[in-house]
């Protein structure tokens, strides 16, 4: 299998006051050209750190290791910082969770969009400017030319996020890692941008790793879904498999939390996954979800392997295919 | 607007009358700056104990409205009243004990150099509320309330995930025990399980403390779940307002219709919708004539590009659209 991105046993560790934090504890994934992988999971489960690790952009204190991290056949773990930076500008790009941390407040939107492209692709300023305007319009920003002279703080949250998306597309990357790219957008623009990204994907064969909490978005764009919990993938499968036959108790709990238009009554209590994520300091004993799981049993003290449930649908749980009703959650 | 008749003044927590907010946008080095009307003659009431959902396109002015209600931005025109008194007649502390914000962006709204404890107690310190000795108890109760582990009490936001930070922001808002909470995308950075906890929590607090919410969100499923009334904004104006159930069932304004059509239900058998709105995104610095929505509206007539529509009663509530104006209907026919 010649996948574009291939990751085996990716780990991130961060020394903190209380010990060694292990926020990413062995992630494996394969992504083909033109494919979309969506990563969902509880806040703090390590999604952003996973994506930063893939980009080689972890904070300095963090340590990253893995059995394999290859992109287009190239081993990323062995690259120097400079080689990695070159790759980031062109072949891989990232849309960060928070635009304000990656947009420089001191420079105009135009400068930030254009400079990167001039540097990486060696095109003329005029050409880069045309591309910037083209992409800003694609993400639904009118009067794009006049927006180029604005500074990030003069834009609304949603406009900033769209600028980030345009920026990630400037050099026509092979892989986009997008961390919550549409959370600050209203639904009509979200739909438009998702359409555009899907179209570009079909056109250019771009692959996407898409991190989002919005299960509505996930359902509509994912080829495959990885459900992440406490630093590892606990369930992976196609969108259909995850939504139609969720298997891991965490996945089921997650789906019960959604207000469903027309089905959930006004103000009615939503489902919940009671409890909190285990502290990831020094690692986790047994199944990371056990402390919150209504089906916990003795066997959960040993961390389960990711096991195949048929047709590429895998789940990390000792229970076979537990039938878990909402009522059990309420009393858990 | 028209619903003034239906709410007694003492039932109104916040009221905007004819509020406009204009920013000056520079057009480059040699061009004169141009006005951008972020809010355009808005009249809106927030009634005690209600959850008013505010939805609308990105950049339509929702956050600006929130900032005006919080006293963070001065309206260019119009009046803001708080508990039936002019906004300007009170000091910061009086207002802060009544209205607190939860913002969209938990990154820039929390000081990354302060600990969680300091962040949550900041409003108490600024406004000298209660005894210092009681603060720690207050903070740890708040952490429990918003589902943060106690061990994070001395952590700072840079070590926390987006969702964890947003819970800190919520704890900070609630520690003042405000009557009104202005929520600007309070759950958009949260995963759905935390979102459901926070929504359940906001609803519990409303029942317990009689809180009033202005709830800004792009997540319409969430708004439908939590809001009793909804206002739909487009380019600085409220284009439709009414009971949530009515708006979600039979939206009237063409923009509201498109908005509801764009909801992505979690159904993997469906594709991303091709909403009939793309193309002509309006330029807020140079808004379209007449009804500002007309270039994107499939039902627009020549009247719509000429005449700016005024709110038409749709008791209870209104819609700002010629198509629903019985008087204009005759002209259009
Ligand atoms: N620089 C850091 N120092 C210490 N801990 C960190 C640092 N960055 C992240 N963490 C911790 O690592 C864990 C994973 O963080 P990460 O940002 O990857 O979460 P996430 O899954 O992206 O969450 P969210 O959905 O809220 O964005 C969290 O518990 C967080 O507190
Ligand atoms: N300080 C400012 N200076 C100039 N223009 C501004 C300023 N703040 C906001 N604007 C403009 O006012 C308009 C409304 O912005 P606002 O932040 O209220 O939108 P919003 O509805 O909250 O959008 P979003 O859903 O993206 O958060 C936008 O066009 C924005 O660019
Ligand atoms: Mg994150
Ligand atoms: Mg906003």
Structure description:
The complex is a heterodimer of chains A (332) and B (333). Chain A is α/β, with parallel strands linked by helices and 332 residues long. Chain A has a domain at 246-332. Chain A is 34% helix and 21% strand. Chain A contains twelve helices and 13 strands. Chain A has helices spanning 47-55, 81-90, 99-102, 109-121, 125-138, 144-147, 157-169, 187-204, 215-221, 239-244, 249-256, 326-331; strands at residues 5-16, 19-31, 36-41, 63-65, 68-71, 74-75, 92-95, 175-179, 207-211, 224-229, 232-238, 307-308, 314-315. In chain A, the strands form two sheets. Chain A has an eight-stranded mixed β-sheet with strand order 7-8-9-3-10-11-13-12, sandwiched between helices. In chain A, strands 1, 2, 4, 5 and 6 form a five-stranded antiparallel β-sheet that branches. In chain A, a hairpin with a 2-residue loop joins strand 1 (5-16) and strand 2. The longest helix of chain A is centred in the middle third of the chain and has 18 residues, at 187-204. The radius of gyration of chain A is 21 Å and the shape is globular. Chain B has 333 residues and is α/β, with parallel strands linked by helices. Chain B contains eleven helices and twelve strands. Chain B has an eight-stranded mixed β-sheet with strand order 6-7-8-3-9-10-12-11, with helices on both faces. In chain B, strand 4 (77-82) and strand 5 (85-86) form a beta hairpin. In chain B, helix 3 packs across helix 4 (132-146), helix 3 (116-126) runs parallel beside helix 5 (162-174) and helix 4 (132-146) crosses helix 5. Chain B is globular and about 65 Å long. The model of chain B is unreliable at 1-5 (pLDDT under 50). Chains A and B meet through helix 7, helix 8, helix 9, helix 10 and helix 11 of A and helix 5, helix 6, helix 7 and helix 8 of B. The structure holds adenosine-5'-triphosphate (2 copies) and magnesium ion (2 copies). One adenosine-5'-triphosphate (ATP) sits between chains A (14, 16, 21, 23, 43-49, 59, 97) and B (159-163, 191). One adenosine-5'-triphosphate sits between chains A (14, 16, 21, 23, 43-49, 59, 97) and B (159-163, 191).
């Amino acid at each position: 299998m010649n996948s574009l991105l291939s990751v085996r046993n990716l780990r991130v560790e961060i020394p903190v006051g209380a010990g060694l934090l292990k926020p990413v504890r062995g992630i494996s994934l394969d992504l083909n050209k033109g494919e979309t992988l969506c990563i969902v999971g509880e806040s703090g489960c390590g999604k952003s750190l996973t994506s930063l690790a893939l980009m080689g952009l972890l904070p300095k204190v963090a340590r990253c290791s893995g059995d394999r991290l290859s992109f287009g056949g190239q081993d990323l773990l062995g690259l120097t910082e400079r080689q990695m930076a070159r790759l980031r500008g062109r072949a891989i790009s990232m849309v960060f969770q928070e635009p304000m941390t990656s947009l420089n407040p001191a420079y105009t939107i135009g400068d930030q969009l254009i400079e990167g492209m001039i540097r990486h692709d060696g095109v003329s300023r005029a050409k880069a400017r045309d591309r910037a305007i083209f992409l800003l319009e694609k993400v639904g920003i009118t009067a794009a030319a006049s927006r180029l002279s604005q500074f990030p703080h003069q834009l609304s949250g949603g406009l900033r996020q769209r600028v980030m998306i345009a920026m990630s597309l400037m050099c026509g990357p092979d892989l986009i890692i997008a961390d919550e790219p549409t959370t600050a957008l209203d639904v009509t623009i979200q739909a438009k941008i998702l359409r555009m990204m899907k179209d570009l994907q079909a056109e250019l064969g771009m692959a996407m790793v898409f991190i989002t909490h919005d299960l509505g978005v996930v359902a509509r764009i994912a080829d495959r879904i990885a459900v992440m919990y406490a630093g590892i993938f606990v369930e992976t499968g196609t969108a259909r498999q995850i939504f139609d036959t969720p298997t891991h108790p965490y996945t089921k709990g997650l789906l019960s939390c959604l207000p469903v238009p027309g089905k959930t009554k006004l103000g009615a209590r939503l489902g919940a996954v009671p409890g909190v994520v285990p502290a990831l300091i020094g690692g986790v004993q047994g199944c990371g979800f056990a402390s919150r799981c209504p089906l916990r049993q003795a066997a959960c003290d040993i961390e389960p392997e990711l096991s195949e449930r048929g047709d590429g649908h895998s789940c990390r749980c000792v229970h076979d295919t537990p039938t878990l009703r909402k009522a059990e959650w309420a009393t858990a | 607007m028209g619903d003034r008749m239906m709410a007694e003044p003492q039932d109104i927590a916040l009221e905007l009358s004819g509020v406009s907010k204009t920013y000056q946008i520079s057009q480059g080095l040699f061009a004169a700056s141009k006005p951008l009307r972020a809010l355009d003659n808005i009249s809106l009431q927030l009634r005690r104990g209600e959850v008013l959902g505010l939805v609308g396109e990105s950049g339509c002015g929702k956050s600006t409205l929130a900032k005006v209600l919080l006293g963070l931005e001065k309206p260019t025109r119009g009046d803001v009243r708080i508990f039936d008194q002019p906004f300007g007649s009170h000091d910061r502390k009086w207002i802060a004990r009544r209205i607190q914000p939860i913002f969209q962006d938990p990154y820039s709204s929390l000081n990354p150099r302060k600990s969680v404890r300091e962040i949550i107690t900041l409003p108490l310190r600024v406004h000298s509320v209660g005894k210092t000795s009681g603060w720690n108890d207050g903070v740890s109760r708040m952490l429990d309330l918003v589902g943060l582990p106690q061990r994070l009490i001395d952590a700072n936001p840079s070590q926390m995930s987006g969702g964890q930070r947003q819970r800190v922001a919520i704890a900070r808002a609630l520690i003042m025990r405000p009557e009104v909470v202005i929520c600007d995308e309070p759950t958009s950075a949260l995963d759905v399980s935390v979102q459901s906890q926070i929504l359940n929590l906001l609803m519990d607090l409303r029942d317990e403390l009689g809180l009033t919410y202005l709830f800004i969100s792009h997540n319409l499923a969430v708004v439908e779940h939590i809001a009793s009334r909804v206002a739909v904004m487009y380019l600085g104006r409220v284009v439709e307002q009414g009971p949530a159930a009515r708006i979600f069932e039979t939206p009237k304004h063409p923009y509201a219709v498109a908005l509801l059509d764009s909801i992505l239900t979690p159904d993997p058998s469906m594709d991303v919708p091709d909403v009939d709105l793309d193309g002509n995104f309006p330029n807020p610095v140079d808004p379209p004539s007449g009804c500002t929505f007309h270039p994107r509206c499939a039902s627009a007539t020549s009247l719509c590009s000429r005449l700016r529509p005024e709110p038409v009663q749709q008791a209870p509530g209104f819609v700002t659209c010629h198509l629903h104006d019985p008087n204009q209907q005759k002209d259009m026919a």
